[in-house]
Write a structure and sequence with these properties.
The protein is of the alpha/beta class and about 210 residues long. Helices cover about 45% and strands about 10% of the residues.
Length: about 210
């Protein structure tokens, strides 16, 4: 069945990188690679933050204290916040791609995110007919319920929906409900997969 709706992740798909700012700060401090990233990707408290059960300040304070305990290096909270903000810088090429997809399919945003995040003030929400944000939904990827919320809002079966995310665990969670998973490795590969699924027309030879 042809895909008629495409949902996109935010960080690492619509932005240049979700975690590059943390890796830069880790290098500045002489910490192991992903010593800070692991808090923002795998820590249970990140789940509480992204479902509105913890404030950004509470989480950042926790990261600073716990990272210093683990590595013996002081973490500056303002510098950590700046590193997090780098992950919110949108990729213009991906926004143009969403506009292209929109000509052929319904577009959605499905994001694990933070209620206080500043990106919303300038985000082009008009490109997405449906938005599912973990901080509003109270559930996060890869929990099955957030994909059910997406399908309900799109009002179509999973077989007609594709989901693009840069984390395998999140596309695997979508696939478990029958949504077509697209692990994001770059724009060209994503385009090719959406063409294969019928959500985009194949490019015409020059």
């Amino acid at each position: 069945m042809t895909v008629t709706a495409v949902a996109f992740d935010f960080g690492g798909v619509l932005t240049h990188s979700a975690f590059a700012g943390f890796n830069t700060y880790e290098a500045e401090l002489g910490l192991p690679t992903d010593a800070l990233v692991t808090f923002f990707r795998d820590d249970p408290k990140m789940g509480l933050l992204e479902t509105g059960q913890l404030t950004s300040r509470e989480f950042m304070k926790y990261v600073c204290i716990e990272a210093e305990r683990r590595h013996g290096t002081r973490i500056d909270m303002k510098r950590l916040g700046a590193a997090a903000s780098e992950g919110q810088v949108l990729n213009p090429a991906m926004l143009a791609f969403v506009e292209e997809v929109r000509e052929h399919a319904t577009t959605a945003l499905l994001t694990n995110n933070v209620a206080e995040a500043a990106w919303r003030a300038t985000f082009p929400f008009h490109l997405f007919e449906v938005v599912v944000d973990s901080s509003e939904a109270g559930v996060r990827k890869p929990e099955p319920q957030i994909y059910r919320v997406l399908l309900d809002k799109l009002d179509r079966p999973a077989s007609q929906v594709a989901f693009v995310d840069d984390l395998a665990v999140n596309v695997d969670g979508a696939a478990a409900l029958g949504i077509h998973p697209i692990l994001f490795t770059g724009l060209d590969a994503c385009r090719a997969e959406l063409v294969r699924l019928g959500a985009l027309l194949a490019p015409q030879p020059a």
